[in-house]
Amino acid sequence: MNSTTRVLLIGAAGRMGKTVVALARNDRQIDIVAQCDLGDSIELAMENCDVAIDFSHADAITEVCRAALHHGRSLVIGTTGHSQEQRRTVEEAARSVAIVFASNFSVGVNVLFWLTRKAVELLGSDFDAEIIETHHKMKKDAPSGTAKTLAETLKAAQKTGHEIAIQSIREGDVVGEHTVIFSRPGERLELTHRAANREIFARGAVRAAKWIVGKPAGLYSMHDVLGL
Ligand code: NAD
Q1: What are residue 134's DSSP bridge partners?
Q2: For a substitution probing ligand 1, which of 36, 56, 76 has the most ligand atoms within 8 Å of its CB?
Q3: From ligand 1's centre to the CA of 72, what distance in Å?
């Protein structure tokens, strides 16, 4: 039985793309059969893969979804910074193909999402919550996709309808840091995740690519992939 997952990598020349390529070299269950970057035809490149991993730019999403629908291929979307309309494009495509859409593929951050929900449940409503995120200067979107997911998680758990403040810092070569702060007069609780390298994201994306093949159409998260 051939259990190799054939992958098209979109955004292959970028920081995350190169990290996925390096990781896949040592993984016999993954074969990167095609790579594309800015200017290449995603639709042509998607023909002979089982799943496409997207670490490119939010503006590529229409072409990525159109190609996946045309060829009936699964998608793992790691790109962040999508507009509401672009997110709707993904939701629409997920009616016909299986898609993992995750603002952060690291196991640690997905546990942070879980802990954030749990903290709201245990601390109650008299704690204020805010988020601080720090990334390298080259990052194109702000706030980060992970900070937005944390804010949505907090909002859903608090049920007050209050917007959650996000402070974004862009400095040096920081791979990614996210802190959720809960405070009230007299006490403060901080939950922090620090990413030291990009391999943790690449590893999660590859795991999601192996997991999604053969799944029914639908929109999945890393929560589903990790079984959290
Ligand atoms: P990068 O700028 O280093 O690389 C992006 C690559 O995509 C570049 O080579 C660029 O030329 C290419 N590209 C741009 N538009 C394209 C298009 N229309 N079609 C094909 N290729 C295109 O960025 P990066 O640091 O590798 O990050 C890529 C994306 O992944 C960003 O949105 C980032 O926020 C996100 N990211 C997500 C996670 C996660 O765990 N989900 C982790 C890290 C980064």
Answers
A1: 169, 177
A2: 56
A3: 23
Backbone angles phi, psi at 92, to 5 degrees: -65, -45
- Tokens encoding 108: 């640690």
Pocket of ligand 1 (CB under 6 A): 10-11, 13-17, 36-38, 55-57, 59-60, 78-81, 102-105, 141, 145, 201
Task: Say which CATH superfamily domain 107-195 falls into.
Answer: Dihydrodipicolinate Reductase; domain 2 (3.30.360.10)
Q: For every one of its 228 residues, what pLDDT tens digit does the chain have, with 9 covering 90 and above? A: 458 999 999 999 999 999 999 999 999 999 999 999 999 999 999 999 999 999 999 999 999 999 999 999 999 999 999 999 999 999 999 999 999 999 999 999 999 999 999 999 999 888 999 999 999 999 989 999 999 999 999 999 999 888 999 999 999 999 999 999 999 999 999 999 999 999 999 999 999 999 999 999 999 999 999 998
Nearest-CA neighbor of 102 among 117, 85, 87?
87
Residue whose CA is at the smallest distance from ligand 1 atom 35:
79
CA 17 to ligand 1: nearest atom: 26
Distance CA 143, CA 72 (A): 32
CATH ID of 5-101+199-226, from 3.40.720.10, 3.40.50.720, 3.30.930.10, 3.90.650.10: 3.40.50.720
